[in-house]
Amino acid sequence: MPIRHPRPLPALSPGMKPLEARDRDALVPGRAARKRFEEATEAIRDTPSLLVGLALSAFLTGIAVAAVLDFGPGLTQLQQSFGLEIAATPSPPSATHPFGTLNVLGIDLFVALFQATPIDVALVTGILVAAAAIGWSLGSGAGLFGGASEWLVAGAGDVLASVPVVFLVWILFVGIQPLVRGPGVLVVFGALFVAVLWPYYARPVRIVAGSVGASGYFEAARASGASRRRLLVRHGLPNTYVPILAQLPVDVANIFFFLVVFPYVTCITGGTYSLISPLPSAAFPEWGTLLGKGICYASAPLIGVLWWVFLFPTAAIVLYGIAVATTCDGLERWSARRVHR
Amino acid sequence: LSPLARFAAMRGLLIPGQLLVILTVVYLFGGVLPTITVTHFGPCSLVGGACSCPSWADTGCALSTVTAGLGVFLARLFTGQWGYAALGAQVEPVTRWIAWRLGNSLELAAFALLLSALFAYPLGLKAGWQMGRPLDASVRSGSSLAILVPFMVVLLGIMTLAYPPFSRAFGDTPNGSLPGDLWYDGHGGQPAWVNIAGATSPTGFPIVDALLHGDVPFAGDVLAKTLLQAAAIAVIYAGIFLRYSRYAVAMLGHEEFLRAGRARGLSDRTLLWRHLGHRFWPAYLLVFAATLPAYLVVQSLAEVLYSTNGLGSLLFLEFGNVGATGFGFAGGAAAGNFYQVGLFLIAVVVLLGTFVAELLARYFDPTLRERRR
Fold it and tell me: Does B196 touch chain A (CB under 8 A)?
């Protein structure tokens, strides 16, 4: 757990006590900023997993931007080809279709995955960031100050933990989705995931914040008359984010579980997935749905038969997951490094 | 009262409240909101005739009807009036489905949890003890991969690898909770103690029933299938479990009793397996409680993919058909009600499982035991 100690006050008079190096830097314009930048780059160099995570994130963001520019307004509609649709079996990877095809959907898998990249990156990152931000701020407030926010965090955590995340999101979505039409469905889906996930961040943060609240430097800051907002922003939030980093990769799995499994289950049962789909239309490009529907339509219960239907969508999902996991791991190590210094 | 009894009483009092809140959410979102768009989902299924209100804008009528409906919903849930569920064309009372399928699910869970424990306990202990070293790095990477690769792909991948050797060895597919038609053809047909829905008698546990009837080949085939499916579940669940348990061990590794043990010249082996292993049990139980919902999801998915006649597969299949079968047994819908009962049962299992795990963790925690004295 990172404990950030308050910076010592600069000496009032050079005769009384020499200034610390950091405070001398602060007196020279630009030097402090340059020093901070150097420290940050050194820290990034020392934590290779952070470098890998940031590089993967940049790579995915680059692909997403390229897809947005390439497809323009047609981004949200899969390009289906009637020629592929009537083919008897999906084609394996070839020069024409580098990732193979999905016959019933009539799509080229490479194009579909490329097209889905900005949507998946935005959707999953948006859910994770929003849930983590709410959980972080509420959990910190609850641990530091108690009161209503503590009841909210403890109560929500206890109740929501009694049903698996994906089932709870599903039941909420079933109720709300019929009231929403078009692209709003995706926003509602994201909002419901955020509503269910935030206590999973808030609960561990609350415990860490509790120990921060009992620390000497926090008491000192409180005694010096710091406002609640300053206590939270200056001392609470910077010292309570580590539990969030451990939870984020788990929730990548939760979100994609929903996106992969429910299209698959609805497909094999012949159910009316369109009634409970988080996607605005059946031709909406999305990695998880491509995987779930691909496995179902390809009638391939075993991976060896139509391996490309499994491999490429899975690779896209895992690549995103690794980007999140390594970034979180790197940030955790970076934080530990700061404390040890 | 002892501290443990006080804790049990306080924690036990919370359970009905938790259950009530979650069931209210299930009712409102699964039973009330969908009826607002009646034309979209078919006939109104709300109890008490909410559809007879002039409109939803008539809040007084709507509120009293919804409250009455919630009362009926809860009353029927807690008194076992669970309506009907459908699997394909077969429509049966939910209680009968449960009687037919519970044994299969429990048998699979027993093996999967046992294998997970055998795998995760020593590995979590050793990895947490050697934090940052190669074993820990391997465990961390392995558990991350088990989480990040979609569970469906992991489960199907394991089955793909196991399918040919299993078929050669047993003359049967590794899917299902009972032997397949091919196997029956070579072994004198389906026994009379297996009914049309694939439930065995007298206990409902296929392996136990086969042994009771002296059908050892049947028991061997089912045992092999169950072990394979359980191993696939254990790969994922142990991955989730290890992610939390190695941290728990690492935190225990800084405690004073270990330093004292080292000072007295105890070997690392003794410290790890006897002292730390003993102290790890409470943390192990708490991690199990925290990951129990994830376990239930993984087993349910495995049951769907492996065509197991379990409650998890029934739950998922009803999820898939919810748009077609309607909402809410409280409204007397003919079928399609198992998902609400299923969520109720899952909530009960998770809440009671967590309660028991927390109690056992406190009981096994030597610091608490010391305090009780």
Answer: no
Please report, as a single letter, which amino acid is at residue B100.
Answer: W
Residues A197, B34: Cα–Cα separation, whole Å = 23
Residues B106, B357 contacting (CB under 8 angstroms): no
Answer yes or no: are the C-beta atoms of A105 and A85 closer than 8 Å. yes
Residue B28 touches chain A, beta carbons under 8 Å: yes
Shortest CB distance from B152 goes to which of A166, A250, A260? A260
| pTM given for the model | 0.84
B165 touches A at CB < 8 Å: no
Contact A228, A260 (CB under 8 A): no
ipTM: 0.84
B202–chain A nearest CA distance, Å:
31
Chain B contacts of A176, Cβ < 8 Å?
29, 33
Contacts of A178 in chain B (CB under 8 A): 33-34, 36-37, 40-41
What string of pLDDT tens digits covers the 341 residues of chain A? 455 555 555 555 555 555 555 566 566 667 778 887 887 777 777 788 888 999 999 999 999 999 999 998 888 888 777 666 566 677 888 888 889 888 666 788 999 999 999 999 999 999 999 999 999 999 898 888 877 777 788 888 878 878 899 889 888 887 787 777 777 888 999 999 999 999 889 888 888 888 888 888 888 888 888 888 888 888 888 888 888 888 898 899 889 998 988 788 777 766 554 456 788 887 889 999 889 888 887 655 566 778 888 899 999 999 999 999 999 888 887 777 766 55
Interchain contact, B18 vs A304, CB within 8 Å? no
Q: Would you give the end-to-end CA distance of chain A in angstroms? A: 14
Strands of B71-166 (E only): list them: 84-87, 90-93
